[in-house]
Specification:
The structure is a homotrimer of 212-residue chains.
Chain A: H1 4-27, H2 32-54, H3 60-63, H4 66-81, H5 88-115, H6 118-139, H7 153-168, H8 173-194
Helix pairs in contact in A: 1-2, 1-4, 1-5, 1-6, 2-4, 2-5, 2-6, 5-6, 5-7, 5-8, 6-7, 7-8
Chain lengths: 212, 212, 212
């Protein structure tokens, strides 16, 4: 069984990501069913991928339909309240950041329970954090957030690494979850606020032909 | 075991969706292998997703290779006969509508047999109806039909809801399948003919800053 | 158990595809985590799809984390050395060609071991060869190589068909693997060098209205 902290965070992450999916739907002026579809895809996409590759089928939301209901309700509420914030895109980016940090830790935790390999746990944390947003941006034809110049995948990676390392060091899970989440959110937040980014690949001139 | 009506409809849906995939290939002037690829992806994509998340692996077309053969043959026939209709895009939209209504019912039926939960059944109906077309449009770099202004996902949703509700009320499956299919097709058809659509999200001015 | 030749080729294919993913990341000027993500997606995508639909879960890279490590290391090396070649896009296309031919044979071999059906084996060969590159191009927002005018999917198809046919005829696996790989690589290479392509779909004028 998973401890309560992780389950609560997974629920929170589902709802947060569902909001980002619905906000993309609002930018495309879709109808309410479109909001529901993009909310579900974004909220459930990462966990679906994680469960499938770990062989945990039927996937969690088939066993617990309350997951789908939560993403649907949140997406529909967004349909009616999305006009309130001044800038929907800013909200989208920040909700996406919270969801990213949450799912990086939750995904790593689930994988640690299923396979007990730290590399797989970190990879699953990154994958379940990134996958929902990638699907959302592809289906909604947005510029993929994952390609953004500011720190993004790195934040999920750092959060998952901190969590897995602390668990391995014997730190209680609640504390490891908290510190992993904060690491991810602070890094991504630094990217959003100060445009913090890692060195990008800089194309340099190729070697002159004929020289070794 | 599934009853015969559903199996026949699944076959018909496979072939119809395969035609829409091949028509996208024709719009991109691909060669015959491209037709086969897009036909398979569109015809088998929805069912593959459904089987994977329900944990019904190996997926149905691995167990019954005749499914692949049917989509391949249909896609190759389309290569030779796609020039006949005056407007290929109109055919694409209508075939897609029939496939959507068919898979909404078939997907819900399969999920009802596997998990017996009405919410999951409806979600699976919508997902298996929409997924093949989403993949087709992403790989073929078309404007996703799922983003279209006219009723689309809602039609699949309505068809699946009608089917599941009737089965729950004790109506014989053949009748429930027929009524669910008609509901989906009529709604989507109304969208195509009269441009019927649900209220879209309308951006409204944000609240004035400083006011509650 | 799989024989050694296939395992070696799978490793080689993983690394080659990881390079192509990293080269796409370099074209988008991503940071090193972006290189790692695209390298993993491209290197592992085809095999993940194959394992999922065959029901071989947890998928191979969850059971053998060394697969992930290899794609990560290759992607990170590419970050530092991608500037050396004169034309990165040419390298991308040729590495992709080698990976395509390798995975067509490896995928067919794995499917033959799992289901023993020649049609499924050929389909899995094509799918695992094409899927990683399709994901790479969608996430990296490149023009999908699979839509390219020159022979692409057909090369994977031919390689898989040759391999499966030879195995069925009783030819030793090593030889069948070698000939299948050469068939795929030569066909795709001919497409790259001479622009060899199959007849494309040519839109022809529709039938005059009112005539049978």
């Amino acid at each position: 069984m998973f401890d309560t902290v992780t389950t609560v965070l997974e629920w929170f992450g589902l709802c947060i990501f569902s909001v980002t999916g619905a906000l993309v739907a609002s930018r495309k002026q879709m109808d309410i069913t479109g909001f529901a579809l993009l909310g579900c895809v974004t909220g459930l996409g990462g966990g679906t991928f994680r469960d499938l590759v770990l062989g945990l089928t039927p996937v969690s939301w088939v066993e617990h339909p309350s997951y789908i209901m939560a993403t649907l309700i949140v997406a529909c509420l967004t349909f009616f309240f999305a006009h309130i914030p001044q800038s929907r895109y800013q909200y989208l980016l920040w909700f996406d950041a919270v969801g990213l940090a949450l799912f990086a830790v939750v995904g790593a935790e689930r994988a640690l329970n299923a396979s007990n390999d730290p590399i797989i746990a970190v990879a699953m944390g990154v994958a379940s954090a990134a996958f929902g947003g990638i699907l959302r941006d592809i289906i909604g034809q947005e510029e993929p957030v994952v390609l953004s110049r500011e720190i993004y995948i790195t934040a999920a990676l750092a959060g998952a690494v901190v969590f897995v390392a602390l668990v391995r060091l014997g730190v209680p899970r609640e504390i490891a979850v908290g510190l992993g989440f904060c690491t991810g959110l602070i890094l991504r937040g630094a990217g959003l606020i100060w445009g913090l980014s890692f060195p990008r690949y800089q194309p340099r001139p190729g070697r002159p032909i004929g020289k070794p």
